[in-house]
Write a structure and sequence with these properties.
By secondary structure, the protein is mainly α. Helix content is 92%, strand content 0%. The protein is built from two helices and no strands. The longest helix has 41 residues. It is rod-shaped.
């Protein structure tokens, strides 16, 4: 009988671990979505710095 308790305990632990991994994955995914949104919204991505450099070069001419 103790083995049944151990199996159930392992199942519970596995379920808890799976739930934790889902939460972490969702959090990391949400962080990437928010970061990409900010880059698009505020123009802080790599293309923004390229545009700024191009504008400065044109102004110097």
């Amino acid at each position: 009988m103790p083995r049944l308790g151990q199996k159930q305990s392992w199942r519970q632990r596995l379920g808890w671990l799976t739930g934790e991994l889902i939460v972490v994955f969702a959090g990391v995914s949400a962080a990437f979505v928010v970061k990409n949104y900010r880059h698009k919204q505020y123009g802080t991505g790599p293309s923004h710095s390229t545009r700024c450099r191009s504008i400065l070069e044109v102004e110097e001419l």
